Amino acid sequence: MDAVSEIEKIDVQAEKNLNPVFQEDYVGKDGLLYCGRCHTRKEYRINSALLRKEMIVRVKCQCEQEQWDREEAARALREKQNRIRRMKGTCIHDRALLDCIFEEDDGSLPQIGSARKYVETWQERKANNDGLLLWGGVGTGKTFYAACIANALIEEGVSVLMTNFSKILNQLSGMYSEDKNHFIASLMEYSLLIIDDFGIERSTEYALEQVFNIIDERYKTRLPLIVTTNLSLETMKNPADIAHQRIYDRVLAMCIPISFQGENHRKADTEKKFKNGKCLFEDEGDEENGNEIE
Q: Which residues form a coiled coil (predicted)?
């Protein structure tokens, strides 16, 4: 054996002595195999009534069991993450809303605390059929608030659908009556339905009837509903016609109103991007040539 091989052999043996992982299994005084690392049994004796003899069976030692448990936990976590990813991809129709999570709140939305509480007390909210009506001006954070709830509940395995009536009505168009009934029934399979931008959909007689049917079905099945709208609470309490009154009465009966009357965050974001754009494109050449971004 050459010097290099001998050194390697010595190094391996030293590693075995220092690291219990490399300790060899051994046979104990009872004649059974033990793990050289954790010193727990890898074999057990059992009496087989069927075979009428004693048998030695292989089992996991403690460190093998712990390793198996870790791998199983990691596998279960991966499966959960993949399931949540699939649910979000299916249940939140606007991909931009997937990033709306409580951790992204910058403190500019004072109502966000009640959104966290809604998630924390979800079982009670569901039992009481407590929905939310998020109303107020454009860009005041209503959609972010609702999407935070959706993402947080989906993370906990709750079935949530976040969409709007324009998408629903487009899906219903062209369906036969039976298919429409099945589709509306499928919306009741979700523990929570979130309708974003309520009021922007068409106001035709057909559209209003379908909107009422869906909201009424949630009402009758006692399933929570969250609605975001730019409509004022006064408008919803004093509708212009019977068709809208039927819809608004159901929403107000199911949903707790929360007002969003702050600044337009989307307008502020637009102005910030505009300023960043000016900084990006303004250079010495522009200044010399008298060019300026307006």
A: 63-90
Give the model's confidence band at 20: pLDDT under 50 very low, under 70 low, under 90 confident, else very high: very low
109-141 as b/e: b if 16+ CB within 10 A: bebbeebeebbeebeebbeebbbbbbbbeebbb
Phi, psi angle pair for 94, to nearest 5°: -100, 110
Question: Token pair of 119, please?
Answer: 């998630």
Give the DSSP H or E segment for 88: helix 62-91
pLDDT in tens, 39-92: 999 999 988 777 678 888 999 999 999 999 998 988 888 887 777 777 777 778
Domains and CATH numbers, the chain: 1-91 (no CATH), 92-267 (3.40.50.300)
Q: Which residues contact 163 (CB under 8 A, 6 or more apart)?
A: 93, 194, 195, 196
Q: Which two tokens stand for residue 102?
A: 């409580």
What is the dihedral angle through the alpha carbons of 32, 33, 35, 36, rounded to the nearest 10 degrees?
Answer: 100
Residue 292 sits at φ, ψ, to 5 deg, of -145, 140
Q: What's this model's pTM, rounded to 2 decimal places?
A: 0.67
Distance CA 16, CA 182 (A): 66
User: CB of 100 within 8 A of CB of 147?
Assistant: yes
Separation in Å, CA 144 to CA 122, 198, 252, 254: 18, 15, 21, 21
The DSSP bridge partners found for residue 226 are: 132, 194
Q: What are the helix and strand counts (H, E) for the chain?
A: 12, 9
What span, in angstroms and rounded, lies between the C-alpha atoms of 266 and 138? Answer: 8
On whether the CB atoms of residues 217 and 188 are closer than 8 A, the answer is yes
